[in-house]
């Protein structure tokens, strides 16, 4: 075996992050090191300490992909690679971006209370969700405009999810059907319906395209004002086509973002949508955009098989409660009858641990995997998932949480004044 190939950088005299990881992985499996490890452990007598669990490295990619050390640094690389107009479309929120900011800040108001004396030598992040066995509770939430950041972005991101074995949420299509046949678990996502015919047609399309569930976002009756898009004179049709080269000089806009614009999207949707969908499909129905106890109870009563606590990433009604604050209220109202998921502001593995300690069964990410897609394409999506999963496992181990069943409310505490919602 060529242990020092120039291709890996190990024998070239140039050590990179990637080659260091490869060398460490190779040495971790060395019989010599294993033999030495059995000779007393940490300064003790022969065999005094049991061997530690093996060190686990994430998959390695190019040096460029491995260089950023967290999601925030991947976002910065993405910002440099795409147009400012595209960056603002993805990064921005509605109106004054109060909800966008609050989603993120809420995590700093919730503190972890770790448990010691717990055997965490084996960490298990697997779970069952809506009849599917998953390796980790990180789902890739629905979102449009991926062509703004990467050509054929929807399919490329889905391929990254499939490779990483993450649930992906997108509209039913031929490409989703093909990937589902190859093992991708995906939920058919929609912004909702105000008429029975289109709702049931969608449900049947979702079944035919291999979806394992249907997710309906219930918080988008109107498109909210997004100040960044208005300042940039964005044409919303570019969300599908990508931004043209002459966007900065061409005055022609088919669907321009204009201050004070009223853009109805699905203003006529009611709870009847659940009846329509259930009549057309046996797939589980998930409602995304639940933020109050009242709506959570109604969702369950009308047949939702899971709910997602979400304020659309701060992109709809500005000034809404941050989702981390809304989560305990919804969990209490649902009272274990259906799974409760959450999205909004998650950027680190510790954020996931906090959300799950408050009762989330799983979490969704949006912008983080967009940044991975924009920065590095498919492998960027994979890197974001793997990075967050690794951080989550480390945070679980440090908190005394060996598996997902061990999460409970005692592991976290809001700072004084950090949460005032009903039912907390």
List the helices and strands and how they pair.
Elements: H1 17-28, H2 31-37, H3 63-66, H4 71-81, H5 84-91, H6 98-105, E1 110-112, E2 127-129, E3 132-134, E4 138-140, H7 153-164, E5 168-170, H8 174-181, E6 186-190, H9 196-208, E7 213-217, E8 222-223, H10 227-231, H11 238-241, E9 263-264, H12 272-280, E10 285-288, H13 293-301, E11 306-309, H14 323-334, E12 340-343, H15 349-357, E13 362-365, H16 367-376, H17 378-399, E14 412-414
Helix pairs in contact: 4-16, 7-8, 7-17, 9-12, 13-14, 15-17, 16-17
Structural overview:
The chain has helices spanning 17-28, 31-37, 63-66, 71-81, 84-91, 98-105, 153-164, 174-181, 196-208, 227-231, 238-241, 272-280, 293-301, 323-334, 349-357, 367-376, 378-399, and strands at residues 110-112, 127-129, 132-134, 138-140, 168-170, 186-190, 213-217, 222-223, 263-264, 285-288, 306-309, 340-343, 362-365, 412-414. The protein has an eight-stranded parallel β-sheet with strand order 4-13-12-11-10-7-6-5. It starts with 16 loop residues before the first helix and ends in a 10-residue tail after the last strand. The chain contains 17 helices and 14 strands. The chain folds into two domains: 6-57, no CATH class; 68-414, TIM Barrel (Alpha-Beta Barrel). The chain has 424 residues and is an alpha/beta fold.
């Amino acid at each position: 075996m060529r242990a020092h190939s120039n291709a890996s950088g190990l024998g070239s005299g140039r050590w990179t992050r990637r080659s260091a990881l490869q060398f460490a992985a190779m040495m971790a499996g060395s019989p010599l090191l294993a033999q030495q490890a059995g000779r007393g452990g940490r300064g003790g007598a022969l065999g005094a300490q049991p061997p530690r669990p093996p060190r686990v490295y994430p998959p390695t990619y190019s040096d460029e992909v491995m260089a950023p050390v967290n999601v925030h640094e991947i976002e910065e690389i993405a910002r440099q690679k795409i147009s400012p107009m595209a960056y603002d479309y993805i990064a921005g929120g509605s109106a004054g971006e109060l909800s966008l900011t609050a989603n993120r800040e809420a995590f700093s108001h919730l503190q972890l209370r770790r448990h010691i004396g717990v055997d965490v030598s084996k960490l298990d992040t697997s779970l069952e969700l809506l009849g599917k066995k998953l390796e980790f509770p990180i789902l890739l939430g629905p979102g449009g405009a991926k062509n703004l950041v990467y050509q054929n972005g929807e399919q490329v991101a889905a391929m990254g999810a499939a490779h990483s074995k993450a649930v992906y949420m997108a509209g039913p299509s031929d490409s989703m059907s093909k990937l589902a046949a190859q093992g991708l678990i995906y939920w058919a996502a929609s912004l909702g319906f105000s008429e029975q015919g289109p709702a049931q047609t969608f449900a049947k399309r979702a079944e035919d395209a291999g979806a394992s569930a249907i997710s309906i976002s219930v918080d988008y009756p109107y498109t909210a004002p997004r100040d960044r898009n208005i300042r940039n004179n964005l044409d919303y049709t570019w969300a599908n086509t990508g931004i043209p080269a002459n966007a900065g000089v061409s005055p022609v806009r088919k669907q321009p973002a204009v201050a004070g614009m009223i853009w109805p999207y699905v203003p006529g949707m009611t709870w009847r949508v659940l009846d329509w969908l259930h009549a057309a499909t046996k797939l589980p129905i998930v409602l995304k955009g639940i933020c109050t106890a009242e709506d959570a109870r109604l969702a369950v009563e009308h047949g939702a098989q899971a709910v997602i606590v979400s304020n659309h990433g701060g992109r709809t009604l500005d000034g809404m409660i941050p989702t981390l604050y809304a989560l305990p209220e919804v969990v209490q109202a649902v009272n274990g009858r259906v799974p409760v998921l959450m999205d909004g502001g998650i950027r680190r593995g510790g954020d996931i641990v906090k959300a799950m300690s408050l009762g989330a069964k799983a979490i969704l990410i949006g912008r983080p995997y967009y940044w991975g897609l924009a920065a590095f394409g498919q492998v960027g999506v994979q890197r974001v998932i793997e990075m967050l999963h690794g951080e989550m496992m480390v945070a679980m181990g440090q908190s005394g949480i060996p598996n997902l069943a061990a999460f409970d409310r005692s592991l976290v505490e809001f700072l004084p004044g950090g949460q005032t919602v009903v039912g907390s």
